[in-house]
Amino acid sequence: MKTYNYPNKNKWTLLSQRPILNQNDLEQTVNSILQLVKKNKDEALLELTLKYDNVKLNNVKVGPLEITKAISIVSMELKTAIEQAYNNITLFHESQLETESKVIETTTGVKCWRKSVGIDKVGLYIPGGSAPLFSTILMLGIPAKIAGCKDVILCTPANENGNIDPTILYTANLVGITSIYKVGGAQAIAAMGFGTETIPQVYKIFGPGNQYVTKAKELIQQNGIAIDMPAGPSEVLIIADQSGNPEFIAADLLSQAEHGSDSQVILLSNSLKIIDDVKCELIKQLEKLPRKETALGALNNSRLILLKTIYDCIEFSNIYAPEHLIIASNNADKYASKITNAGSVFLGNYSCESAGDYASGTNHTLPTNGFSKNYSGVSVDSFVKKITFQKLSAQGISNIGQSIEIMAEAEGLFAHKNAVTLRLNSIRND
Amino acid sequence: MKTYNYPNKNKWTLLSQRPILNQNDLEQTVNSILQLVKKNKDEALLELTLKYDNVKLNNVKVGPLEITKAISIVSMELKTAIEQAYNNITLFHESQLETESKVIETTTGVKCWRKSVGIDKVGLYIPGGSAPLFSTILMLGIPAKIAGCKDVILCTPANENGNIDPTILYTANLVGITSIYKVGGAQAIAAMGFGTETIPQVYKIFGPGNQYVTKAKELIQQNGIAIDMPAGPSEVLIIADQSGNPEFIAADLLSQAEHGSDSQVILLSNSLKIIDDVKCELIKQLEKLPRKETALGALNNSRLILLKTIYDCIEFSNIYAPEHLIIASNNADKYASKITNAGSVFLGNYSCESAGDYASGTNHTLPTNGFSKNYSGVSVDSFVKKITFQKLSAQGISNIGQSIEIMAEAEGLFAHKNAVTLRLNSIRND
């Protein structure tokens, strides 16, 4: 982990850069997977699952017996924990739903409003790998249901025995997912984007994944399928003043670092003592971690930066545009109002990132890689489209008709003008 | 224009298909323009403007004198019309801004909220061509300003004399656009996406355009630049019962058809008489249109479909997912609640599409090509990102800490668990 003392402002953009991934051949490989699934559908899924996941399946759909069995296996302790998270995430996301349409009468007789309608068919992707990411099912499934999406399907790879982790099945069932399929990687994205005999086509695809999944989501957009957001490795930036707790800060940096060796963690502080103390704590805590090697890899991409003031730290952070931003300070509330680019912000010494990752109620599917400059994290908004409505009375079209005629004529659109003229004439003749 | 009487339901998806555009070589051509601008910046813009627009410019930036002159040229009548539209669009879009953060205490001591922050730098593209589309400047510039975007720049091609239509400059100035540049086509998208010596890089690009512009917007996303939505030719679908007015319906179909020969217009009705009467009106009104040839081209892609009931028409419309939907009926309000896929809906005989195109207050930048299944039209939402915040007190982390520990451990993320454990220990020891 490199330390930078008072770097010049003209270096900040450089220090805000993420590690660049080598993506040679990725597009070609992923494209060939997409085309194979488009052509051979279920047959291609079984073939690719054997090839990449080393499992021979006869059918990708999870049956009701597998779900019932999973529900009985998950421990009561874990179920209770998941339930608390479920309740908090539900409470926060329910507050995001626009239930009533605000009708605005822009001119007498001209009423405009909009209505949120759930996207009919959405697909969630949950990666496999070393651990079952059931928390992401809560983060995607709960807002999908609140939004009113009718069909919410889920794809996740089976393990070497052809099974899915019971906690995944339990959580999917809890949030009301319609159908679950054993398919992972780019082939899962292809299946949901094109549809197969077994897996229905969806209109929008959500969820994290490795670089094959990410590239597949990027490419599937060219077929008119929407995605949640572009993705990149996870990251945290911590701003700490002398009231920050070095032990907590080190733990938060490590909890991001253990996600993957491509993760990035950054500490900004106006206190050299905090930076030194965090370094000591990092070494101490790192020793005890099961994922020590992974965390160490991530720390190599990472930076401890000493700046003159906390306002400098905030300015740097807004340039970096972090996915997660922790403000480890007793004055966090005061600084929060200056944040313009971030996915999710954690205020004060007790607001650790893992609270938001699991159970505070906010969503953990967030824009990485600087995308918090132009994208929001997942929310109920991500699962609806907003339709606008307008209703003009005879008085309404009389009040704005002439302006429309003049503007349409100035744009050379005479049929647009005529649609108004005919109505104005008809009202005059009544 | 083809008529279909009571087509079988299994034909509806086929009848909902849009004309397919031939896009051979398009990606390669556009990609080479993007790369040239990325490499040679302003020099490339001047070169490409000479090549494609046949104008030799020395500088792409519009100066203050050009704007002052434009303001003096635009007629008072047109200014007054634009001002009425400006006021209505402002009223409706201001109602979309979330000004206060609803704080949700999901568990005692765990507070979550979110805040809308304008995207710092946005770029608007306004096409040139046969008419100055100043109305689109209102539709993009007004929500950008309401959202609080700091830099709002605009690119639009100059005419053969190197000038921009005065109404474009007048409207851009009215809505408070920071800088205006004389550059069009894929090169304008490249300039805003990569930045040049003169044109600053932006984080999100908005606006309509031909297939080169559309492809450039699609490709620029791979560089982390967001776009408003995927685009396609404009379209209207009208649902009419016997209370619809055939003269108005024909005028509305034609006002969409005059946009371009690739536009699509569809009429659904449960009344054969309405369909026959609309056909007669179309022939009568078409004769008088300056853009007769264009409209005729669009009518060739278009369909008049007789169905048994208005509810069948609504079901068809939801499959088609139109950009503009007019419900030409005295019972429009009743039917409106059944609409699940549409960009903007016009209710009743006095709500013509051109009202929404110019001055009712709703936005006219809408999802085409069936994208209203999964995308919303432009609104203030399009110009903000929503940042989530959370603040946990000692009591808050005590209340949810154990659930986080259990879930993190079940996901194999021990550093996530440890970030909570250290805090819980510290509280117990206090």
Overall description:
- In chain A, 46% of the residues lie in helices and 17% in strands.
- In chain A, a hairpin with a 2-residue loop joins strand 2 (104-107) and strand 3 (110-118).
- Chain A folds into 3 domains: 26-105 and 117-227, Rossmann fold; 232-376, Rossmann fold; 393-429, Up-down Bundle (Single alpha-helices involved in coiled-coils or other helix-helix interfaces), CATH 1.20.5.1300.
- Chain A has 16 helices and 14 strands.
- In chain A, the strands form 3 sheets. A 6-stranded parallel sheet of chain A has the order 1-11-10-9-12-13, sandwiched between helices. Chain A has a 5-stranded parallel sheet with strand order 6-5-4-7-8, with helices on both faces. In chain A, strands 2-3-14 form a 3-stranded antiparallel sheet.
- By secondary structure, chain A is an alpha/beta fold.
- Chains A and B meet through helix 4, strand 2, strand 3, helix 9 and helix 13 of A and helix 4, strand 2, strand 3, helix 9 and helix 13 of B.
Total number of helices of chain A: 16
The CATH H-level homologous superfamily of the largest domain in chain A: Nitrogenase molybdenum iron protein domain
Number of beta strands of chain A = 14
Radius of gyration of chain A equals 26 Å
Name a few traits of the molecule:
globular, 16 helices, 430 residues, Single alpha-helices involved in coiled-coils or other helix-helix interfaces, 5-stranded parallel β-sheet, Rossmann fold, 14 strands, alpha/beta, 6-stranded parallel β-sheet, homodimer
